[in-house]
Amino acid sequence: MRPVLALTATRLFDGFRMLERHAVLVEGDRVRAVVPAGDIPAGARRRDLGGGLLAPGFIDLQVNGGGGVLFNDDPTPGTIRAIGRAHRRFGTTGFLPTLITDVPDTLPAAVAAARAVMAEPPDDAARVLGVHLEGPFLNVARRGVHAAEHIRAMTEDDIALLCRLAGGPGRILVTLAPECVPPGAIRRLTGAGLIVAAGHTAATYDEIQAALAEGLAGFTHLFNAMSPFGSREPGTVGAALAAPEAWCGIIADGHHVHPAALRVAVAAKSRGLVLLVTDAMPPVGAADPSFRLYGQTITATGGRCTTADGTLAGSALDMAGAVRNAVDLLGLPVEHALRMASAYPASALFPEPRFGRLVPGRLADLVLLDDDLRAIETWVGGVESGGGSRA
Q1: Are residues 125 and 39 in the same domain?
Q2: For a FRET experiment, which of 3, 43, 101, 334 has its CA 20 to 30 Å from that of 192?
Q3: Are the C-beta atoms of 346 and 59 separated by less than 8 Å?
């Protein structure tokens, strides 16, 4: 039987507190314990990581692409693996490959591809936790870069299909415009086990209240592509900030939302309900800053992915960059920023998360960061980045 692995770091964040000179004990693919470096059991295989910060691996609920590929272009296991390998380099150990609005056949294909990867032994990519279906049931008035010709009303057949798809492994997150789906649809989807978030929506405050009553769980890229907060009509943003239990994903790249607005969101929401997402596109982890989307050329310049007319089209953000921005642009403590990238998204996905904190019994998904919060190494299920061999 393989001996316990002890990973010792100068600083260790277990998801609750920052510790000095502690070790994570890894047994198989799980965390056995976190102990002072002087209490490592005899017989453990030791690795001293030197300087840096060892923390729970990052979890990203919105990943459209990376490594030069886009999920929509080829919703297959190979595409997902390429995206997962690219993002693992930046500390992401678990993610939802995200399919944006497209032709109807891509939706079941995307779910099938994600589940095919989940059924295989881990490789050198980030762990697939399910799939995010962002569209096509959106409001065309708030479509952003989503193709208007593919946005459509949700039908009874669509509801039935989504409910059937909910029966497999992993979580399915569906982003939709609540005002554009039939009454009761959200209740049926959440009752079947899907997670429903509001996004690309012109919903009023009252329409969001009705959606929350049906089980709406969260809000996709808060502030972007949704009705804004006003003094007499709080809109989707106001409803999101006021909702006591709904989570909000934020793109902290300094381009999608002004840092002051994000600081307001963090201050307004209960702890644990604002989480970092990337909305990443193919340039993340790739040399080529350009890609094609809906027949248009999108180029990443200065960290912004835009069409020729300047419309934002996802981001060039990675999760380590999002953590740095949460610290540098939003002024948050490192511990809070790390939770926003790990424990909080884990809780948004799972009632009883197996990830996001370094506590006994949870999966050993970790990231080692340098003093500038850049990813050095990752472990998924105790397996070091590079695949196959353990640290």
Answers
A1: no
A2: 101
A3: yes
